[in-house]
Design brief:
heterodimer, A: 392 residues, mainly alpha, 18 helices, 5% strand, B: 328 residues, 2 helices, 41% strand, DEP_dom (chain A), GGL_sf (chain A), Regulator of G-protein signaling 7-like (chain A)
Chain lengths: 392, 328
């Protein structure tokens, strides 16, 4: 659908978008229903307008374009005006807006004085229902709505018209008019308990991508056997497997220890790194964080048959009230996890694990790097190898 | 926003000329904005980076034993063992260092297109035209018939093109000519997740090398490379080379190379790209500068699979000439 919509908006072969003069003002940025149908017949090689209407209605129902004067998202083959939805609101961004967001939106709408923005009956009913449901936090919702309305007022009038309509269309997709299909309903097999709303990624400045690739490869060049010969030698070229034997030894070499400083992941990746980090955390009485993280990683690797028991064990050990190795998780993750354990799975602790990971990364990891045990390993003299003298 | 800045119907006081000027200046502004986010070629940014000095990569081992084209191979985590599969229906486990064949299995089908080594080193997975992916535990007893312990794990409705164990021996990720990828619980054979998004055969897959991530990439006949997040429900489509920049950052090509590449892998630092081609060669590219550093000859037929060893000390190539080579 997105490919088609992009083609519809192309300079050369797309649908011409117009600003139409209306009764009292201009209607910016619109196309007509029959424009859309005609375009589809030509550019999508369709023969039957019925087919075009069907596809167009589906695209409207998913929110890619919308009628500017109707909450019902369907395509009509006439002069009805439509507008394209901004990519920010496209369904592929996996929005899962919460009821509180909807409440803020409807509340904001009541603060605007235009007749065209009055709430429809079903919206007024929804607002009333939400006010009852969120009675306790309504003040907070009201404040957010006020803040948003303030920002909106500052915008250019024409821009506002367009943005308002796009926002309304967004909600028409996610909170459709009663009786209309909700296209955001997901297949039960795919439904996730842990989705984050607003997972849009800002496009990165394209020169940062090469820069980060360059800096990564420069940092790791000394670990790449193609450029830096491993110590004492590359087994494949020298027929000497000492290099591999050293790897498995419990005492990590300087070069290996230095790599732990590149990033938190390096510590977690290396068994020796994990061991040292655990020792350090034990000295700070916060080892339960790493142990929880490791337990959850292990959970994800076990056969399906063992999952329910493991989930229960992890809960009891780390999260249940009175747990022996209680970890500190934010209330949102805790609430989600409490809900998730009713239906245990490999990703039951995903939120909590992410929170603990961030905690260790931002807090314990940097102290670990400054710790005396890490510094000692880093500065350790090269040990004399049992078989031969240090290399040339 | 771009679409909304196009010329509109004539209003009083405006002439076609002024509208055209307005639209031209807007187009120019858009190009300027785009340029800010835009198209800096990787090799331009890498101009100041030191050149790669001549590499002396040679074949260090040749593994002979397959009776027909070798289609796929995978390294064991111990950096020396590998498993390979062939059109002749055989799957062989080798100690690449000593050239010893340690295990051999005959599959019920020909064209075993995919094989993978389990992280523990205790099992291998393989499949192909049988539309399945089966797991064979590797026994220390040489006399034991491996085929007897075979376990059917994955079932697709078309050929198996790729398989890979995820973080453990317990989960298997597969890609298939039926256009899907799937994640399976090895012990029970249960389908845990399936990934729909390709519109044609999926030819290969590769896991992101990360302890913490849950992502993998799949490539298909629909010319798309899709990046998937194994967390339920999140699928992200990536058409080009850099995920975050959302566009192609570099292209590796040369006029003199007219045959397709079948398989690629990066060296440990990501500076080098090893690519196996249908013209029987392996080309080594400088990822940052975009130029080819060397061509490696040796195989006598198409190269079907190329993989760098877990510690980066060597890479292996599998070929339709029935052999495997280890290079360093």
């Amino acid at each position: 659908m997105e490919e088609v919509v992009a083609r519809m908006q192309e300079e050369k072969n797309g649908i011409p978008i117009r600003t139409v003069k209306s009764f009292l003002s201009k209607i910016p940025s619109v196309i007509s229903g029959s424009d859309i149908v005609q375009w589809m017949l030509t550019h999508l090689n369709m023969e039957d307008p019925v087919e075009a209407l069907h596809l167009g209605t589906l695209m409207a129902a998913h929110g890619y374009f919308f009628p500017i004067s109707d909450h019902v998202l369907s395509l009509k083959d006439d002069g009805t005006f439509y507008r394209f939805q901004t990519p920010y609101f496209w369904p592929s961004n996996c929005w899962e807006p919460e009821n509180t967001d909807y409440a803020v939106y409807l509340c904001k709408r009541t603060m605007q004085n235009k007749a065209r923005l009055e709430l429809a009956d079903y919206e007024a009913e929804s607002l009333a229902r939400l006010q009852r449901a969120y009675a306790r936090k309504w003040e907070f919702i009201f404040m957010q709505a006020e803040a948003q309305a303030k920002v909106d007022k500052k915008r250019d009038k024409v821009e506002r018209k367009v943005l308002d309509s796009q926002e309304r269309a967004f909600w028409d997709v996610h909170r459709p008019v009663p009786g209309c299909v909700n296209t955001t309903e997901t297949d039960i097999k795919k439904s996730s308990r842990m989705k984050e709303p607003h997972k849009t990624r800002k496009p990165l400045n394209t020169s940062s991508a090469p820069l980060s690739l360059i800096s990564y490869s420069q940092q790791y060049t000394e670990y790449d056997p193609c450029f830096t010969s491993p110590e004492p030698s590359n087994p494949w070229t020298s027929d000497d497997t000492t290099c591999w034997e050293l790897e498995t030894s419990k005492e990590p070499g300087q070069q290996r220890v230095r790599r732990w400083g590149f990033g938190f992941n390096e510590v977690l990746k290396d068994p020796a790194g994990r061991e040292q980090f655990l020792k350090f955390l034990e000295s700070e009485f916060s080892s339960e964080n790493l142990r929880f993280w490791l337990a959850v990683q292990e959970l994800k690797k076990r056969p399906v048959r063992e999952v329910a028991t493991l989930v229960h064990n992890i809960w009891q050990e780390f999260l249940a009230p009175g747990a022996p190795s209680a970890i500190n998780v934010d209330s949102k993750s805790y609430a989600k996890t409490t809900h998730n354990i009713k239906d245990p799975g490999r990703y039951t602790f995903e939120d909590a694990q992410e929170h603990i990971y961030k905690l260790m990364k931002s807090d314990s990891y940097s102290r670990f790097l400054r710790s005396s045990c890490y510094q000692e390993l880093l500065q350790a003299r090269k040990k004399v190898r049992p078989k031969q003298e240090s290399c040339v | 926003a771009a679409a909304q800045s196009r010329p509109s119907a004539l209003q009083s006081g405006e002439s076609l000329a002024t509208l055209k000027n307005e639209s031209d200046s807007l187009k120019k502004k858009l190009e300027e904005e785009r340029a800010k986010l835009h198209d800096v070629e990787l090799n331009q940014v890498a101009e100041k980076v030191e050149l790669v000095s001549a590499l002396s990569i040679r074949t260090r081992r040749v593994l002979k034993g397959h009776g027909n084209k070798v289609l796929c191979m995978d390294w064991c985590k111990d950096k020396r063992r590998l498993v390979s599969s062939s059109q002749d229906g055989k799957v062989i486990v080798w100690d690449g260092y000593t050239l010893n064949k340690e295990h051999a299995v005959t599959m019920p089908c020909t064209w075993v297109m995919a094989c993978a080594y389990a992280p523990s080193g205790c099992a291998v997975a393989c499949g192909g035209l049988d539309n399945k992916c089966s797991v064979y535990p590797l026994s220390l007893d040489k006399n034991e018939n491996l085929a007897a312990k075979k376990k059917s794990v994955a079932m697709h409705t078309n050929y198996l093109s790729g398989c890979s164990f995820t973080n453990s021996d317990m989960q298997l990720l597969t890609s298939s000519g039926d256009g899907t990828c799937a994640l399976w619980d090895v012990e029970s054979g249960q389908l845990l997740q399936s990934f729909h998004g390709h519109t044609a055969d999926v030819l290969s897959l590769n896991l992101a090398p990360s302890e913490t991530g849950n992502t993998f990439v799949s490539g298909g006949c629909d010319k798309k490379a899709n990046v998937w997040d194994m967390l339920p429900c999140a699928s992200v489509s990536c058409r080009l080379y850099d995920l975050r920049a959302d566009r192609e950052v570099a292209v590796y090509q040369k006029d003199s190379i007219i045959f397709g590449a079948s398989s690629v892998d990066f060296s440990l630092s990501g500076r080098l790209l090893f690519a196996g081609y249908n013209d029987y060669t392996i080309n080594v590219w400088d990822v940052l500068k975009g130029n080819r550093i060397s061509v490696l000859f040796g195989h006598e037929n198409r190269v079907s699979c190329v993989k760098v060893s877990p510690d980066g000390t060597s890479f292996a190539s599998a070929s339709w000439d029935t052999s495997l080579r280890i290079w360093a």
